[in-house]
């Protein structure tokens, strides 16, 4: 009897959590699964399960931190490879890309007004900080 070789035929679908990991949206499959379960990933406008089959042409909406990606699946893979290969698995819409860039610019503009303190807080300042922190406990 001959040993069976792995199936090298092209796939028609891949698990959603594995695809998100392979496309480098999340660092681990566990993080991808958690994001899917908490509703941060939608397939065709609907919440999905981690085991949902993703096919070429599916529209996904992925929320990662403060960034929102609206993408179309262009390729299928469940093996994490180089970033250049991962970028060929999807195509982001131009509207999504512009919205992310505008949101990033807005966050950068908000940070520009912030000035970090020059030194550590002294004893009086630490007491005030601690007292302000207790307001939430009420």
Structure description:
By secondary structure, the chain is of the alpha+beta class. Helix content is 37%, strand content 18%. It has helices at residues 16-22, 29-37, 83-87, 94-112, 123-133, and strands spanning 14-15, 41-43, 46-47, 53-54, 59-64, 67-73, 90-92. It has a five-stranded antiparallel sheet. A two-stranded antiparallel sheet has the order 1-4. The protein is elongated, with a radius of gyration of 22 Å.
Structural class: alpha+beta
**Proportion of residues in extended strands:** 15-25%
- Describe the strand arrangement of the main beta sheet, using strand numbers: 3-2-5-6-7
Radius of gyration, whole Å: 22 Å
Low-pLDDT ranges: 1-9
N- to C-terminal separation?
74 Å
User: What are the secondary-structure elements, in order, as H or E?
Assistant: EHHEEEEEHEHH
**Oligomer class:** single chain
Query: Quick check: average pLDDT?
Result: 86
């Amino acid at each position: 009897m001959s040993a069976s070789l792995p199936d090298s035929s092209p796939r028609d679908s891949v698990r959603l959590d594995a695809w998100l990991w392979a496309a480098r949206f999340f660092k681990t499959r566990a993080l991808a699964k958690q994001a899917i379960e908490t509703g941060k990933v939608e397939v065709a406008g609907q919440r999905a399960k981690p085991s949902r089959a993703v096919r070429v042409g599916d529209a996904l909406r992925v929320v990662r931190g403060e960034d929102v990606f609206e993408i179309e699946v262009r390729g299928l893979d469940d093996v994490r490879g180089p970033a250049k290969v991962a970028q060929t698995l999807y195509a982001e819409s131009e509207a999504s890309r512009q919205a992310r860039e505008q949101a990033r610019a807005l966050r950068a503009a908000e940070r520009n007004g912030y000035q970090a303190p020059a030194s550590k807080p002294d004893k009086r300042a630490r007491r005030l900080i601690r007292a302000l922190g207790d307001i939430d406990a009420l």
